[in-house]
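Batch manifest, entry 17 of 40.
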Amino acid sequence: MAERKHDGVQPQIPPRELQRSLKSTHRLRRPAASRWTHVFAAAWVTGMLSLGVTRPEVYQGLLQEDRFIEWWTVALFGVAGFLALRLAWRERRPFDALVGAFCVFVAGEEFSWGQRLLGITPPDAFLEHNRQQELTIHNFADIFGEPRWVLMLALAGFGLVIPAIAATRPGRAILARAGATAVPLPTAAWLLAAVALLWWYPLTLTGEWVEALAGGLFLVAYAPGPAAAGMAAGGGAAVAVLLTLLSGARGATDAELACARTETAAIADDLAYGVAATGRLAGSRSVHKRVFTAIEDGYVRAEGLEAYRAAACGESLGTPRQRAYAVDPWGTAYWLSMERGADAIHLVVYSFGPNRRRDGPPGRGSGDDVAAALEITP
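Output type: structure tokens
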């Protein structure tokens, strides 16, 4: 048999990485669906709805800031973002890079970029214009409007628009060139269920556990497989437990505690016996707001907070800036709660305390919360 000649030219085989890159730019990525997606998503939604109806106090406690569900949401979105960005980098997938950046952004916003964990007092612009007086971008109402609608649009785009485009051959070619992942129908169905739950909002704080569901679905979309997704979600849960314990273990100096007690009592006195309460507050049956938000919304006169402005603890702790925005010594907003009963008005002004999270029902002084409560008889 004659020997094949190559005229001195050896065949050139692209490196394995280049082969993978070239292949990935010409195919539509569709992660495999798993029955476990249905099992866990259904269990999560059913469990949270049942808990909210049968054990509302437990439900409320789990969904407060810096508790397990919030930290788990951070972990789920954070890992999903990492996986999406890694995939985008390795296979040159521009759209998946945008999705990964979105997931990382949601994770950072969810825990206020470490504000409460590190004890950071936000800059003045955040204290004055951010609806939650936190170190977050999505709570600037003048820029983003209602954050819930932004999340709904993102979930609908990923769970409805992209799968719809992927249903046609030309659409699949477009998504392949854009480097977009098209989630399978089971995952898409739960993303749309998340949108429906955010629209319906059957219970208070529904958005908090729906965000965790959404983070898990993004993780499923970008994990190498169901087993890897389960391991990542389980590892994220362990991290969430640890961060919940760490975030609740902060201490405070005696001066800081004394200052918070002085300031909450001063605000309560200004509202009950001074001229800080407006007619809108006096005529309301129930109000529960940050003090600075109550000023912005016309429930409280800022100029009427005379005892609060005269509180002696501020200068010694270096907190005149906090006082201007009704922020406690730990950089977190003071809150007011007013409930009108049949015979009296129950007024509470409280601080989350040094751990910077609400440890129980408003005004109960649970955990390290600092509260001043008054019963006002008309």
